[in-house]
Write the structure tokens for this entry.
Amino acid sequence: MPRHRAAPVRPPATAVDNQRIAQIFEEIADLLEMEAANPFRIRAYRNAARTVRSQNLSFAEQIASGSALPKLAGIGHDLSEKIDEIVRTGDCALLQRLQREVPAGLGELLHLPGIGPKRVRQLYQELAVDSLTSLQQALADDRVRQLSGFGPRLTDRLQQAVSAKTSAEQRYLLPQATAQAEPLLDYLRGLKTVEAAVIAGSYRRRRDTVGDLDILLQADPQDSRPMADALRYPAIEKVMAAGTTRASLRLRGGMPVDLRIVAAASFGAALQYFTGSKAHGIALRRRAQAQGCKLNEYGLYRNGKQLAGRQEADIYQALGLPWIPPELREDTGEIAAAEHGDLPRLIELDDLRGDLHCHTRASDGHNSLREMAMAAQQRGWQYLAITEHSRHLSIAHGLDADRLRRQLDEIDRLNDELQSLTLLKGIEVDILADGTLDMPDALLARLDIVVGAVHSHFKLPVQKQTQRICRAMDSRYFTILAHPTGRLLQEREGYPLDIEAIIEHAQQRGCFLELNAQPQRLDLNAHYCRLAKAQGVLLSIASDAHRTADFDLHSYGIDQARRGWLEAGDALNSRSLAQLLRLLRQSR
């Protein structure tokens, strides 16, 4: 701020004290450090924060009275102007810009004890950790401990801090649930006293998140041994209640579990009942009542005689219906569709011919271009699109035009060597605030695929956010809208958006939407997948892989696609290479 006397100003409605000014300077320093900015610039903001915090006078009162700020060591003209801006507006434009450039979840990581900007940056660049959820998963996979500087004491403190932050949230992402569920299921299936073991509930329906595990054990309900054997599972942390046929417990990973012993004659009925959803079960029971029957967890009965119960499919057949896949059981039209023979033939993982969104270490990935290509080729895919971040996402080491050109040349050379896989040239280009794309058209024209993504300005009003994305989609070279709503499960809602208008615009424009298979995204959700299907908009089921192992995430995308009633023909990347290239040309 200039040191001459200024006219008195009215401070913001919420008074800005020295503590708030210092906090903003520290946040700016943290974000600059995460972007590997000039160390002298970072130090200037940290020193300014200490200086501001140590002053007895109120900067806000000085500015409000029109008095000049005192000359303070380390606070020159630029920083004085920022103090003035913070006092007058309650915020700082530089801080807002830096927050837009850094993935939203990284800011939350900065508040964890024992972890500063350098380590947050290291986690992001080496493990693609960009949120509490992804840090929790990296800790669970023991990947964090392998990083330089992350010893056992630090990783243990991080685990405790993350657990404390997430303890109030009683639902688990699918990989977290799987990590606890599958070893338990393997153990139960290995018991000699148990004939069969199946996980029901929301886990079987492949919901976005799972609150607990409902596990059915087929065994003799009169025999006490099956439950006793089950409760010897080593990873049980606490048994809350236990009887011969039912037990409630908690695993060491935190997951609550209900175990039930069910006789073979009722196992299918119990599986249907406990799979849910509640709404689907009510609709089925009403159908049974309309036919003069009674349906419960033990079977389907008429006049006290069991008509079905041993097999789950027998329940549906006795009610005049084909078996309904668990992913559809939400009472959203599946019973009527089954009755009329209109159930979709749901997509399978093997239907995918390739992946249209992945990163290498050229931006924020962890494997080389060659390593990603070889891993894709080993999976039997026909194609893999390389889509690094563009330059606007600086913390992800996004590519500028020159680096992208060099990568395109590298792709050409590697394609000459590959036998059964074709690498497609692409970019995950930032959609800027005004809807323009963060890369010149002349360069986008050289690409096979342009994946547009919103990584900033999440708080735009619905109309402006929708217009912004529609304008981006109108670009001649735009191909696919990545993670369309921007949601992060258990961390943030999607940005305000008229998704129906986006789907309609994609249909009119002839471009495509993404179903991002990252478990913390699963974006689009099942309802929006179904809307896109109804509009004839093809979806790219994309891993958004940052390492070769991330190609496995496609299974979660397929789960979501099935919940959205998608068939193989509804997925863009179920096409052969020739069919895909034809569709890509038509979209321009």
Observations:
- The two ends are 50 Å apart (CA to CA).
- The first helix runs from residue 18 to 34.
- The CA atoms of residues 1 and 79 lie 7 Å apart.
